[in-house]
Amino acid sequence: MNTKRIAFFDLARGLAIIFMIMQHGMIIYGINEGEGSFLGELIVLLGTGPAAPIFMLIMGVFFLRVKDMRGSAIRGLKLIGLGYLLNLLRFVIPTILTGDYPANGPDSPFGLLMAIDILQMAGLSLICMSLIRYIRPVVWLGLMFFVALISPMLWEYASQNQILDILWGTHHNVAFPFFPWFLYPLMGMYWGELFNTTEDIPGFMKKSAIVGTGLMIMGGIMWIRFDTPWLPRGDYSRGGIHMHMVIIGFVFVWLWLFRLIEGNLTGSKLGELLVFWSKNVTVIYVLQWVFIGWGMLIFGYQQLTPIWAAFIGLIVTILTHNLTNCYSRIQKI
Fold first, then answer.
1. How far is the CA of 260 from the CAs of 6, 197, 215, 263, 276, in angstroms?
2. From 32, 116, 291, 296, which residue has the greatest number of CB atoms within 10 Å?
3. How far, in Å, are 69, 165, 168 from residue 212 at the CA level?
């Protein structure tokens, strides 16, 4: 793939980063996570479908360009370790400094240290993708359905403890358990294989958007009609396959839209900013969480109105960009 053909991936991921930071600011600082406020609920909504699923699916697409599977597995281990280190920096230390915390449970210092976020899930996904890289793509698709269907049973019946939380944890401090979130990198690999081999990118993207629309309609109907142990409505962290059909369908349509506007953004200041953020996604993710975590010592936890929470999210976005820019320049020296 040449740079032009993948530019819209970076543009989509760059915008997702902005949505992500604003959402984190809202759920940490906003009263009731902004619920009941149009602004608060809009920001939280933008930080769901157009954020983490975009990151994970595009990670699967980009993974196909990597030839060093051993290096990918090692990077996966590093991401898992970085995830726990981030927990220490953003949650554990600020919480201990407040002196107000339970001795045990998910909200204890140890529970906060063992929280599962997207870094741990992405790291474990990289390791698993390295193991299945050279099997037939149709198997990736089959594994995706298996992960989606088996996950509810694991949440219900599998052993639950803080060591296994990375796999299928149901504690409230487990935002991205491997089951079911591994299905997004798997779909990214399968979709990316089709994308890489097509000779008609515009046509492929249009067909992908049509399929995505169908998935959203079918998944939405199923979500309305079914709420069973095998097809739970659940929530964003742990939902049934019908919810993931809606999200994957949305991502397909979202990527098609970015493909359409790619020419207008590429080379513009906004386009360059989004690409810069996409290329530095891990650094940005860590920095913005450190800012938000330590900001709780100043603003408290869910104590601000949605407007003020959004304002703090914007300040965190600016601070994160500036520090990332400094870090990038130092790396080039």
1. 13, 20, 21, 7, 20
2. 116
3. 30, 31, 27
Specify the residue for token string 């097509």: 198
Residue partners of 95: CB distance under 8 A and separation at least 6 = 101, 109, 112
H/E element holding 143?
A: helix 137-157
Give how far the C-alpha of residue 138 lies from the chain's centroid of Cα atoms, to the nearest Å.
Answer: 24
pLDDT digits (tens, 9 = 90+) for 63-112: 998 889 999 999 999 999 999 999 999 999 999 999 888 988 889 999 99
Task: Measure Cα distances from 275 to 14, 262, 269, 326 in Å.
Answer: 6, 11, 10, 16
Read off φ and ψ for residue 171, nearest 5 degrees.
Answer: -65, 155
State the chain's maximal CA–CA distance in angstroms.
60
pTM above 0.90, yes or no: yes
* Per-residue pLDDT tens over the stretch 124-181: 999 999 999 999 999 999 999 999 999 999 999 999 988 999 999 999 999 999 999 9
